Amino acid sequence: MGRETNCGNFCTERKSELVCNGFILMRPLFFYINKTTKYDSTIMEKTLIIIKPSAIRRDLIGELIHRFERKGLQLCGIKMMQLDDQILDEHYSHLADRPYFQRIKNSMMKTPVIICVWKGIDSVLIARVMAGPTNGREAPQGTIRGDYSVSMQENIIHTSDTIENAMIEIERFFKPEEIFEFAQLSSSVLYACDEC
């Protein structure tokens, strides 16, 4: 059954797809990614990104922020901070039994880091795809690590790996009053009708 949408077009739903003027605008996300990953493509997510010392020392801060802005994600929190043992023990607790644990912590304390919260539909997935695989030598050109890293450890950027971990990480590094909600003027050209 067709329906009028806020974009002024006549849209129809077909087998969980949104079709607008003959073009498929939205498919369920499982069409694109592994079905074991839980994403809802109609919810504005927040994700955490850390610009690591390997990027800070190479003056890549502006370039990396620029990439996420150009993609269409909305910056809603940002700070510079010096990480210490305590917060890194918590952040990398899943690696505590690995022989390289201390090396990772040492690397993350070489300089302050830039920590950002970005918002958008599927922002966790988008940030992961933009970052590329962990090992910069294996990351495809066009990804952040593919363009700026030749290392497994000094790999420029951290991105949250799941929606659940993004929420945990955001709470770890930001107070609620440090996250800002405001209208993104470009949203009308970033998303199709009924996407947000």
The CATH architecture assignment of the largest domain turns out to be 2-Layer Sandwich
Assign an overall shape. Answer: globular
Strand content range: 15-25%
Strand order of the largest sheet: 1-2-3-4
What's the tally of helices? Answer: 8
CATH superfamily of the largest domain: Nucleoside diphosphate kinase-like domain
Give the SSE string.
EEEEEHHEHHEHHEHH
Give the helices and strands, then pairings:
Blueprint: E1 2-4, E2 10-14, E3 17-20, E4 23-26, E5 44-51, H1 53-56, H2 61-71, E6 74-81, H3 85-91, H4 101-108, E7 113-121, H5 123-131, H6 144-148, E8 157-159, H7 163-173, H8 187-190
Antiparallel strand pairs: 1-2, 2-3, 3-4, 5-7, 5-8, 6-7
Question: Any overview of this molecule?
Answer:
The structure is a single chain. This protein starts with a strand and ends in a 6-residue tail after the last helix. The N terminus is likely disordered. Helices cover 30% and strands 22% of the residues. By secondary structure, the protein is α+β, with helices and mostly antiparallel strands. Strand 2 and strand 3 form a beta hairpin. The chain is built from eight helices and eight strands, in the order E-E-E-E-E-H-H-E-H-H-E-H-H-E-H-H. The chain is globular and about 50 Å long. It folds into two domains: 31 residues, no CATH class; 135 residues, Nucleoside diphosphate kinase-like domain (Alpha-Beta Plaits, 2-Layer Sandwich), CATH 3.30.70. The strands form two sheets. A four-stranded antiparallel sheet has the order 1-2-3-4, with no helix packed on it. The chain has a four-stranded antiparallel sheet with strand order 6-7-5-8, with helices on both faces.
